[in-house]
Amino acid sequence: MTGLRLPYSCFCARGTLRKISTSTSLLSGHNRWSKIKHDKAKVDGAKTRQRSNIAKELTSASKASGADPTSNARLAVLIASAKKAGFPKASIDTAIARGQGISSSGAPLENVTLEVMLPHAVAAVIECQTDSKARLLQDLREIFKYYGANTTPTTYLFEKKGRIVLESSTEVDEEELLEQAIGAGALDINQDNDGGIVVLTEPSQITAVGEALTRALGLKIERTEFIWDPKDDTKVDIPTPEYAEKLTRFTS
Predict the structure, then answer these.
(1) What pLDDT band is residue 49 in, cutting at 50, 70 and 90?
(2) What is the phi/psi pair of residue 201, to 5°?
(3) Which among 89, 107, 85, 97 has a CA at the least distance from the CA of 59?
(4) So what's the pLDDT on residue 56?
(5) Burial degree of 41 (CB within 10 A; 0-12, 13-18, 19+)
(6) What whole-number distance in Å separates Cα of residue 154 and Cα of residue 10?
(7) Helices and strands of the chain, counted as H and E runs
(8) In what order do the strands lie in the sheet with 2-5?
(9) Do residues 49 and 87 touch, judged by C-beta distance below 8 A?
(10) Strand partners, 110
(11) 161, 166, 216 from 211: Cα distances, Å
């Protein structure tokens, strides 16, 4: 099961180039150019992911605790980090406004939630904000068709929660971490694949719990978000690594 935030997705088909020369010098140049293009594509992809993550964090912080950085410490930190990373001011303002349900033009955004079931009984909840519901639904229909997804009720398979990821640390005692998390009102705590400390909360408590833990433990918050957490008795097995990769593409 997975909970998704999927404003838009794009697909790109690549053609095949036929090599018509066997010249050593040309082949060498071709390989060198291919490597340059490959490396550039990797760098561009990393930058795109970074910008997407920055925008998502700004939107989430704005939605959770307001658009004023003077009263939203988490948002102030994210704005500083975004500027340091070279994120344009207009994009920062747009992401913050989106958290308040406002588009870059000032028009209100409409929240759209879609429930879908993918092959192998993998359920998903997709939350979007848009200034054109008709266009969004048309785009999503194409995506669903490509991935074999069908719209059907799925939210009953999940629980909506706040998710806080704290920086990894070897200096914080595990028992102290658990005690502080429970005392702050956390629902659960675990570790992600990168060693980050993941804390789950009630949606309305995400800001209070995050601030309490940073004060008590001295750890930085790496990101916050609202998720649809699958219930334990509804989880399913992914049949193949190939299908797992396909799901990753669907959620990216």
Answers:
(1) confident
(2) -135, 170
(3) 97
(4) 85
(5) exposed
(6) 25
(7) 7, 8
(8) 2-5, 122-130, 110-118, 150-151
(9) no
(10) 130
(11) 17, 11, 9
**What's the half-sphere exposure (Cβ side, CA atoms, 13 Å) at 21?**
9
> Is residue 132 pLDDT above 50, yes or no?
yes
For the cut 80, the answer to whether the pLDDT of residue 8 exceeds it is: no
Q: Find tokens 């588009």 and name the residue.
A: 103
Cα angle, residue 95 at apex, residues 40 and 12 outer, rounded to 5°: 35
CA 173 – CA 179 distance, rounded (Å):
10
Residue 29's identity, in one-letter code, is G
Report the C-alpha gap between 252 and 248 in whole angstroms: 6
Q: Using 50, 70 and 90 to split pLDDT, how confident is the model at 27?
A: very low
Tokens of 92: 């920062």
